[in-house]
Every structure is written in C-alpha cells, then in structure tokens.
Amino acid sequence: MRHLLRDDDLSPAEQAELLALAARLKADPFGHKPLAGPRTVAMIFDKPTLRTQASFAAGIAELGGNPLHVNGDLAQIGVRESIEDVARVLGRQAAQIVWRTNDQARLDTMAQWAGVPVINALSDDFHPCQLLADLLTVTERKGHLAGLTAVFIGDGACNMGNSWLLAGATAGMHVVVSSPEGYQPAAGIVERAATIGQSTGGTARVEADLARAVAGADVVITDTWISMGKEAESSARLEALQPYALTGEVMAMAAPDAIAMHCLPAYRGKEITAELIDGPDSVVWDEAENRRHAQKAVMAWLQEQAGAAR
Ligand code: NVA
Asked: Is 253 within 8 Å of 178 (Cβ atoms)?
C-alpha cells in the first residue's frame, strides 16, 4: 500500500510522473474521475487550515469523489480512541485518508493500520503536498526543475524547509537553506537530501550567510516564522529571524528572473514584505491554486496504486 507521508516517499521518476499528471489535470480539470462512485476521501485536520481543506475538497469533487470532513477536535484522535482504531474505522468508510496533524509518527501509525492510502496534509516535519504544488509552479515558470537553485530563507527547521530539501533534491535542484543558529534543519534531513541528490544531480546545503545563500538563486522561498504549534516562542522567533526577512533587497541579490514563493498564510512586514508578496516576482497565488491540481494527481495516482479496489 502506497502513501504520501513525506517527500522522499516518491522516487525521482514518481515525482516527475505526478507533476506531469498534475499539469494534465490542470489542463483538463473535469475529464478524469478515478474517484467516481463516488468514493469517499476522509479529511482530518488537527491544526488550522484554509488552502488545504479547500483544495482537497474541491479536488476530490473534481475527481468524482465525496470529500468527508472529519472534525479533528471531535474525533480527538489518540485521546478519545487510539490512532489504530480510528485508522481501521475510517479505512472501512473511505478510499483514502488525508490528515493534518503534529507528530509524523501519528501519520506512520495511521498508514500502518488504515488499509487505504494516507496522505500527509502537513505535519510538524513535512508538507509534501505543498511541495508538489510548488514544484508544479516552478515548472510552469521556468520550464524545468533540474539544475535550478532554490533558496529557502527563515525558519529552516520547519516542515517547509525540510520538504524543500527532500523534494528539491529529488527533482535535481540545488537546495540551499539560509537560517540562523537554532533554526537550521536537522543534519539528518540535509544528509538525506544530499544522498537523494547523488542520483538526481541535486545538492543540499545550509548557508547561514544570507547574501551568499541567495546570490544568483532562481527561486527564493520563505514561510511564516511562527509555524502552527510554535506560538509560545513568538517573541524569540521574531527577534532571531528578523535578519532573514524576504525583502526587495534580498530578491535583488538573486537571479534577475528569480521568483519569490510562500506557501501562505503570510505575515506582511515580518517574514516577507508587502511589496514583494504583492509584486511581480511573487507566484504565491499560483502556488495556492496548484495545491488542487497537485493533490488531485496524488489521489489519482494513489488510487491507481491501490488497485481501485474500493
Ligand atoms: N510552516 C507552516 C506552514 C503553514 C502552511 C506551519 O507549519 O504552520
């Protein structure tokens, strides 16, 4: 049973296949109905959501399926009943399970017991659906991925930093994370990305010096400095990460045709300036739209992998 729990669950060939499928589904949004029946896809959110809930619900409907919202606060997974029991119950109702939660291990347990494909709709550690949407967006703008340099600046230890390292290296990109001490990705993630890069031509590294990191970049990415669950650290984070704000001056150090990316929600005047996110270099609205197309590709592909048995 295949799942999408982290970015490196996909081989380079599979990632390319999914991105090509996403582009085809974008061009013909209503012509592909692998969830016809309709088959139900359960969506559970243990953390706040806007884009993910909207794009999955719309995408499931476009694939001919039935989006089922399971209220994470009511289900209290792991409190009211175990993840194992929830997995076995939902696996009897739904063809796939989409889950946004905190610990990656919770997703692993769900995948182990559900009997149907499980999709990580953001965890503390990874955001693989966003990365497929982002790589689709970069492909649309640049025509290719391999060989491009993508620089993630800010809180490099968050889910988006980790996912850019793994997914970017899988795509053969040169991924650089520029963050201060204490906000850099775990060495194991950088090493994993570098290992993936050995077969794709990609590379992965941390460069604390922002000017050196961004010089010549094709893609510059940032994310909120206060990820969901980190609210208690707000003041320390704002102070430590302020020098890593994505501004017009930072973009001026990148390649002349560089694009600025942000998965949203964005905090203008904090991690990114209003001029930049609302300006011509920004592709954030394409990223948001592409969530639907990328996730449709993931669900269609997983349904095919599962043999469309349900
Ligand atoms: N790093 C952010 C991403 C939001 C989509 C968070 O986890 O809150």
From this structure: no
Q: How remote is the C-alpha of 35 from its chain's centroid?
A: 23
Taking CA atoms only, the protein residue closest to ligand 1 atom 8 is 227
pLDDT digits (tens, 9 = 90+) for 18-66: 999 999 999 999 999 999 999 999 999 999 999 999 999 999 999 999 9
Report residue 254 as tokens.
Answer: 């990148």
pTM (predicted TM-score): 0.98
DSSP string for 122-185:
--SS--HHHHHHHHHHHHHHHS--TT-EEEEES-TTSHHHHHHHHHHHHTT-EEEEE--TTSSP
Report DSSP letters for 31-94, one per residue: S--TTTTTPEEEEEESS--SHHHHHHHHHHHHTT-EEEEEEHHHH-BTTTB-HHHHHHHHHHH-
Q: How far is the CA of 36 from the centre of ligand 1 (A)?
A: 32
Q: Please state the atom number of ligand 1 nearest to the C-alpha of residue 51.
A: 5
Instruction: Of 163, 292, 293, give the one whose Cα is nearest residue 221.
Output: 163
Q: Is the peptide bond before 265 cis (omega within 30 degrees of 0)?
A: yes
CB 121 within 8 A of CB 43: yes
* pLDDT tens figures, 140-174: 999 999 999 999 999 999 999 999 999 999 999 99
Nearest CA to ligand 1 atom 7: 227
Ligand 1 centroid from CA 31, angstroms: 32
Angle, helices 12-27/187-200, rounded to nearest 10 degrees: 80
Question: Which residues' Cβ are closer than 6 Å to ligand 1?
Answer: 122, 158-160, 223-224, 227-228, 263
Q: Which residue has the tokens 């490196």?
A: 8
Token digits of residue 196: 């993936």
